[in-house]
Amino acid sequence: MKRARVVIASLALCASACAAPRAALGTAASPCFRALASAKTAVHGNGRLVGAQHVSGGSVDRTYPGVVSPRPRQACLVGFSGGFRADAVDLPKGAPSGRYAVVIVTAHQWRALATVVTDRLPHGLRHR
């Protein structure tokens, strides 16, 4: 009987460990965790991370038409706030300067495809 209690307690402990709270970017952004290093490099470590969003290539085209060619199947949009200039980021697109930089990172090879300098964040990256 005592052995059965030990086994049940051990199973309960293991099950609760699987459900332990985790630090994550959120459900839609979790696949983008690996994109953060490439995105931070693209903005040369400047700005403050606003958020990340996992999107389809079609969504990239709708949000930023003609910015990335060929379009990736899946990508991550990684947003930074701060003052940005197009000549101070890698792969610049968009305005010459702006309050935000949105780095488009391919979800296949985790490399930056473009950095959009803008004054407006896409809907999925806006402050809530």
Give me some keywords for this one.
about 130 residues, alpha+beta, 5-stranded mixed beta sheet, about 30% strand, globular
Question: Could you characterize what this model shows?
Answer:
- This protein is α+β, with helices and mostly antiparallel strands.
- It has one domain (24-125).
- It is built from 3 helices and 5 strands, in the order H-H-E-H-E-E-E-E.
- It has helices spanning 2-18, 36-42, 57-63; strands spanning 48-56, 74-85, 92-94, 97-106, 112-118.
- The protein has a 5-stranded mixed β-sheet with strand order 1-2-4-5-3.
- A hairpin with a 5-residue loop joins strand 4 (97-106) and strand 5 (112-118).
- Residues 15-25 have low confidence and may be disordered.
Global outline? globular
Could you name the ranges where pLDDT drops below 50 across 5 or more consecutive residues?
Answer: 15-25
Distance between the termini: 53 Å
What do the pLDDT scores average to?
84
Please list the strands of the largest sheet in the order they lie side by side.
1-2-4-5-3
The assembly state of the depicted protein chains is: single chain
Count of separate structural domains: 1
Briefly summarize what is shown.
The chain has 128 residues and is an alpha+beta fold. The chain has three helices and five strands, in the order H-H-E-H-E-E-E-E.
